[in-house]
Amino acid sequence: NYLMTSFERQRMEVNVELRKAKKDEQILKRRNISFSSMGESLSPEQEKKNAVSTVHCCLSLEEIVQAVNGNNPELHLKATQTARRMLSRQRNPPLNQIIEAGIIPKLVEFLSRNDNVTLQFEAAWALTNIASGTSDQTRAVVEAGAVPAFVALLSSPHMHISEQSVWALGNIAGDGPMYRDSLIHNNVIPPLLALVSTSSLVFQVGFLRNITWTLSNLCRNKNPYPPLEAVRQILPVLIRLLKHEDKDILSDTCWAVSYLTDGSNDRIHVVVETGILPRLVELMASPELSVVTPALRAIGNVVTGTDEQTQMAIDAGVLTVLPQLLQHPKPTIQKEAAWTLSNIAAGPCHQIQQLITCGLLLPLVELLDKGEFKAQKEAVWAVANFTTGGTVQQVVELVQYGVLKPLLNLLSARDGKTILVILDTISNLFLAAEKLEETEKLCFLVEELGGLEKIEALQTHNNTMVYQAALGLIERYFASEVCGLSQLLPSGSMGRTVITCDL
Amino acid sequence: MELSDANLQTLTEYLKKTLDPDPSIRRPAEKFLESVEGNQNYPLLLLTLLEKSQDNVIKVCASVTFKNYIKRNWRIIEDEPNKICETDRIAIKGNIVHLMLSSPEQIQKQLSDAISIIGREDFPQKWPDLLTEMVNRFQSGDFHVINGVLRTAHSLFKRYRHEFKSNELWTEIKLVLDAFAQPLTNLFKATIELCSTHANDASALKVLFSSLIQIAKLFYSLNFQDLPEFFEDHMETWMTNFHSLLTLDNKLLQTDDEEEAGLLELLKSQICDNAALYAQKYDEEFQPYLPRFVTAIWNLLVTTGQEVKYDLLVSNAIQFLASVCERPHYKHLFEDQNTLTSICEKVIVPNMEFRAADEEAFEDNSEEYIRRDLEGSDIDTRRRAACDLVRGLCKFFEGPVTGIFSGYVNSMLQEYAKNPSVNWKHKDAAIYLVTSLASKAQTQKHGITQANEFVNLTEFFVNHIQPDLKSANVNEFPVLKADGIKYIMIFRNQVPKEQLLVSIPLLINHLQAESIVVHTYAAHALERLFTMRGTNNATLITAPEMAPFVEVLLTNLFKALTFPGSSENEYIMKAVMRSFSLLQEAIIPYIPSLIAQLTQKLLAVSKNPSKPHFNHYMFESICLSIRITCKANPAAVGSFEEALFMVFTEILQNDVQEFIPYVFQVMSLLLEIHKNDIPSSYMALFPHLLQPVLWERTGNIPPLVRLLQAYLEKGANTIASAAADKIPGLLGVFQKLIASKANDHQGFYLLNSIIEHMPPESVDQYRKQIFILLFQRLQNSKTTKFIKSFLVFINLYCVKYGALALQEIFDSIQPKMFGMVLEKIIIPEIQKVSGQVEKKICAVGITKILTECPPMMDTEYTKLGIWLMHTHINASVLFMFKVPSMLSTSLNAEALQYLQGYLQAASVTLL
After folding, report:
1. A242, B302, B412, B793: which could form a disulfide with B426 (CB 3.0–4.6 Å)?
2. Could you tell me the pTM of the whole model?
């Protein structure tokens, strides 16, 4: 075998991305945008108040700076509100100008103005939007000391303020592992969980969505992972949230679980031991794409774990849901499903057997044949792993499902790695055929399906590993006629042109 | 070396001499240059010359020399000295881009190559300015400069097309994209605009189109690994422009040349490739653009002529359609009956026609024709592309497509029948169509069950193929004969055996055809038929069935080798080999004549060996003759030696490098046939085989080792008695081989043969030295392969000389050495030994160590013994040896007792 020492493939083989950040990923930071004059997530009562007070405010940036630094409480509010409005414009909010104007420390100071709820709220909103920007912009907010202030505001008696704080903290947590952990050290979790557990029924669904999203950001990111203690605190709440009906809440909760499972086996262990898997599997079959995506992702992560963890996912029914996901109309879902399958196929042969029993082979071969390329690529891995770990009988069954033709077709893919994995798979198939003394039959099939021609052409591939693998197959299985006659070493093994002979 | 005029002058003179046709002037000059290239400033002198020399020839020569110098020396290899000093490196990188861009094209190409070699090593980390330097030149507005930059960029980025995804690679690509993608896009747009403002200026257009081609190639490289964010965001710009370029035509860009593709064709075919890349890999994002491309490419095909210069474009364009039409969600683009008919009629059929160029190749360049038509190196041909499109369409539209084509096949056959000598090309096209349609059915047949076929292959064979082959004149309509023979070959598994048997004499007859293609195809078809397997894995065609044809087959095959152009025809020689292999004893009566002809051939080709395949099959045939004959009559080996040794001597004397390894192998084979003695003729050669110069060539090593092994097996005693002075030479070979990581296993083969066959006393004095050499190698570079061979060797030694001797020889090198070897090598590594025989040797060897070696039973070795036992049991299970049976058979009672003691101590229970 040329390459496969480790079969289970973690998600991040390469952490540089050339692609656009995917549309189906969860959003890291969000700005609170006013569509009319205000944020839509506000209570109607609050909106009215704002409407009244926003009519006349049109201060310049300079005036804002003056006002917040002055002593006039009314101007404080007016300036903050103006700043917040600028930051909530749909297009080109002046985040940097506001930061450079140096008013953030003042805004943070206003967060503690329990005497002026409106001011508190406006400041929180403005800071939320600044924190939604780039890392530098978020840093400006954090370094002004906003974190403890926002954490304190979580317990504000005013719902819209605690909601705005949840949002701001979500943006800060979304910046990366460093701020996420600094929030955790600032004890953000207990009041946040308290918001869910004490009175979640009282809240509007929008508030709960915000909390869920912020919780998910607290679970997000690696290098380092969130502290295990924090994860243990959050998990029971996530399980509760998974019982909710709202699709946004479900989606963000599943994202959170997917982040927690995206790691080493002990991380996965903490999640699976809560018994969360059956519900996740159930959600994989949800009609909502925004729920299916993270639920599938989470389960996909779990099966990168140990055989036992994978077995738990199987016991939770993952194999009964995967067939329909392999045929999902969205190519990205097909791809993720195939990736999940590839890791199950990397397991011991009794798990491979379950995979067969649950009817996964047909959709797998279909996908290999007709799927979009990125899904085909994962399907190739699934087949490769299957042929590496499966028993001879299981491999035979796979071949009977017609895997060979689409597999060989993909040898003309424009992707060196995929080609190499296929060549390795073919080599596995030959190993099985050798055990059955069916090598010649397989040679014949490979030739008849146009595979030999493709393998021969790959001997001129520019990638050394690819052409060596192709050459290896040819020499081993298709050139035997030449060398076998009288065991003459062909000049090829003497460092010269290689003799190849197709049957 | 200073950058002085004097040095420039000297260098100029030597460069001039390297161009001299007289080797006695040229070689010393080349040697001199090589001897000074390590000096500081040497590359800078070359760069100065290529920039400033008055003599254009010297400029070009300096640029070529510079590129080769970079190629040899730029890479810094670990543990080897840096061959170019750092200041020179910096100076080169500082100047080369500018120099390249300001040089005339001939020199520009060399420097561009040099840049890409340097870039491969240094870019991006050690050459951070390169990208900005290149991008800045885009603004120069000088398209000569811009094209230079683009070409260089292409040579730097094209590796993105074949390297595996890795953090390092993607980081580099990201860096390139950040710096390059936007300027490239701007350049693309600007160039297209310039094309329309200069639409009437032929020379400007040529330069601009060269840029567009390079840009399109860069697009392919930069988009290969994944769809970059930038290009997704700018897909509209790129695809809209690509699309309009596909539909663009300009009289000024059309070339008169029929063969060479012009700029317009090159650009369009690269665009087809780019579209195919997106369609294959980024379907989801590309979907909105795809139908437009299908239409444009289809129109392109319908309007493109038959000239050879369009071949690449046409085949890329058809391949694009072929890959799209088998995707389920694009089915609708092709579904309409009119569309289908039109594709068949206007795209497929015209591109399957036998063109004037094909006819020319058939007659004058048959080798190339065969390679394309037979060996599938026709990937880029129109016919092949058309075939693939047929197969693609059949995935969803098999019925309609078959219907359309059946009509065509019938009408073409009718045309042919009206007037064969004029219309034979129609029949050729008909056969090709049938072949391409049916080969899909053939696939299905073996994939699933027998599909209900629309073409009755046997019927077509009997009605339309056989009549051509049965005609008395083998030289009439050679193309149709070749088609017919190819038909047999391709459908050999579909046509019933009795039809194949009918065909065999026809094929043998066509070995006499004058056309190279025809007799080559006949030989190849026979070869293929002879390899077919029937039940019980026996050949389908049996030797008795061939009995009536043996003589004519052999005669015609060798006669075919006398046709001009076929004297080294590998297909014919392969058919000779295959015939021998099939006919076995039936060839014995003809051997004297056959071996005479083969040796004659060997003598002739050894003057200038040029066809490796032909040569290989020739030697295979010789070996087969020997094996087959000597199996029946071992004494015949002498007559082979008589026939062959003269040629062999000549080959060895003239040092024909290509053949020497084969000669050694044939000699091994001959020697192995001898019974227990070694003829004096072989012994006379023995000293020559030990000459170091023979062992310098890696290709000689495996066959020479095999030959020496044969010498040892048959003549160990003779060597010990009559050539004892050669033993050090033999061990010298061993010493040389084990010093090399690549050849150490060969060294062990030799050593094992020495241990196995040589009388112990003859090697006594060398034994310790052998072990010391092995230890030195172990210390210097310990590889798994070496250790595996080493383990087999010491166990063989133990089997041969006894465990005590093994322990003593180790401990004589250094006290307690044996224990160390046990602990550090044998115990941890023994499981890695692979191979049936090797494992067996180790199992027996270890058993002996455990039971016959008294020091194992007392002193410090005891503990190791227990471990070894553990290992051994594990290993034995692995070897699938039954320990108990070994105990009872190969050990004495005392040893058995010890062993059981160990087993208890190791708490191992025997099965």
Report:
1. B412
2. 0.74
